Amino acid sequence: MRTLKSTTAVFAATAALVLGCGLGTAAASPSHAAHSAATPRPAAVGVCASTAASGAAVRGALPPAQVHRDLSALTAQHRARYGIADKGPLRAAARAGSTARPQISIHPAQGTSFKTMSGADGSCATQSVSTALTVRDGYTTIYTPTMYPPGGSCVELVTVYTNTGRSVSAWDWCQSVNFAASVPINSSFLSAYTNGTGAYTGRVIRTSAASNTWSAALWNYTTGRWDTLFTQSGVNQSGRTDGWDIEELYSTVASSGRAYSCDDMAGITFESSNISVRRNGAWSAASTANADTHYDAPNSAFYCPSRSYQMVSAYDHWKAVG
Description:
By secondary structure, the protein is mainly beta. The chain has a domain at 35-93 and 112-249 and 270-293. Helices cover 12% and strands 36% of the residues. It has helices at residues 8-13, 30-33, 64-71, 75-82, 187-193, 260-265, and strands at 53-57, 92-93, 101-102, 109-114, 120-128, 141-148, 155-162, 165-172, 178-184, 199-208, 213-220, 225-232, 243-250, 269-279, 282-285, 291-292, 308-313, 317-321. Strands 1, 5, 10, 11, 12, 14, 15, 17 and 18 form a nine-stranded mixed beta sheet that branches. Strands 9-8-7-6-13-4-16 form a seven-stranded antiparallel beta sheet, covered by helices on one side. The protein has a two-stranded antiparallel sheet with strand order 2-3. A hairpin with a 2-residue loop joins strand 7 and strand 8. The longest helix has 8 residues, at 64-71. The model is unreliable at 1-45 and 84-103 (pLDDT under 50).
């Protein structure tokens, strides 16, 4: 999802959040691939740059009240990281039959990081979704892939997996600092937005520099147009002008030494391809000119020995298995 990859100072102050630097390179094994979600198909030529907007909302998008009910519990951990007022620190929570332990003990990420650039005003990617992933632990939250464009965006486009559901959702960085829109990953979503490929193409672009207005949209394969998920304007409250397209998760580590997320994600492929950045209205593929891996944690930070990760093509295509 969205967040707040920490700086070195935050890492030192918040040892429970295991972030680091470095890039895992292990390729996905054939046995994992056999059980993976469908590999993302490259976005149709010109889709990211297409001006074909439907003028309609994403099909199946939930009412705001339901989005708040379903996803607002995820906000405190992120708000606390940025010190946003009146939200408080992370709390310890007790599990039945065990002593109290932190809700979140690891927070790793890997993937493409977007550099801060003058004129940056959007990003776009083809992102995998899975109906096979079931989160069993209530403290586990998986955001993969999650995309946030450089340029002080008001919106992050997040593929969300929790123990209450699966969705493609939009996080509001300018007003509520909360999830503000969401569409469930179900058969209707797969039909309209993946065309049977198991991956959707989403983009977030700035539509007005004067008001800092950003809009998240999904490519509708049925209509051949962009459907809007969420639009927001204002002052970005994250304090960031860089961005990311990454696998990110919050989880806890069991007594076995494996994260609960490891078992949930086992054998499933998560992938982002055709990662693109817009600058002054012009699109280009993510590359060394506009991207790097400055949010990457080492593989060990995932506490998942069966997991593999590969930057397939720097920096417009990455793949993680398990």
